User: What shape does this take?
Amino acid sequence: MFECVLRAMLLFALAVLPGIEYAYANEFESTGLQKRKTEFVGLFGQRRVYRYYLPTHYESDKSYPLVIALHGGISRGRNIRLRSGLDQIAEREGFIAVYPEGNGIGALLRHWNAGLCCAKAMKADVDDVGFVLHLIDELGASLSIDEARIYVFGFSNGAMLAYRIAAEKPQRIAAIAAISGTFGRVNDSGEFDWHIPIPKLPVPTMIVHGSKDPRLPFDGIQDRKGKNNELNMIPVREGARYWARSNGCAASGMRTSSGFENVELTIWSDCNSNSEVRLYRLDGWKHSWAGASPNTGSDYNQVGRFETAEVIWNFFKRFRRSLPLQ
Assistant: This one.
């Protein structure tokens, strides 16, 4: 009975989707939150959508960094926008914030194809890397974007896509941050299958992960027959070491003070092209965004009032991608 109802809902959604209209701004250079529908298509042939925040002091004769925020699975751009408070940081610091929408049925069940996850987007091999590059080019054609300062961060499934973008197109990205997301799997022989190519260029990488994350455990798989890691994901620290190796960093990371209570920081430095890898381990934290926004739904006092978006921007703004781009 449930399957019949679900099938009927899906057929109805597919029937009405082509008739849905979005209210999108016609002018790029009006400030504040803007919305745009592109010609790039995703699941079910839907045209892809993104929103972006333009600082009120935007001037077309100046160039601005671009920060792309990728929401988690079964979520949407509005959620990561509200939870991160990125608009306020963009206004204060002078960058353009972008919130792409994943694949789904209208506004429902949105997710990304990160290569090894997730759902229908992965099975249909939707080109989400191409979509993000498309919106970068589209915004760059209409706004004054500093191509040397394009950054990507994501939460959960969005973090997985951020990793993939950095691995496949490192020449377009100055730095990434991955929040509560992993990449690669442990195969049947217990070996690591990374599922992404080794980046051809160093990519500064920041990772934030809760030690008690029940969905993507920090320590990865413990027992292949257990249910602690259904995606067989590689331990988070091993993922950080992968980026340290690809960036040519010193072999051993150094644990140092993070400045936040119950937050352990490991830094891999002495990397090629002045890049860096940072791993923030939030003790006792689960699979959620840490920050002051009332929309986070969690008490970030337990991790010393760790403001994820602020920490991300403080990391990003230190790095530029060398030009010319390829």
About this structure: The chain has a mean pLDDT of 85. Residues 2-16 form the longest helix (15 residues).
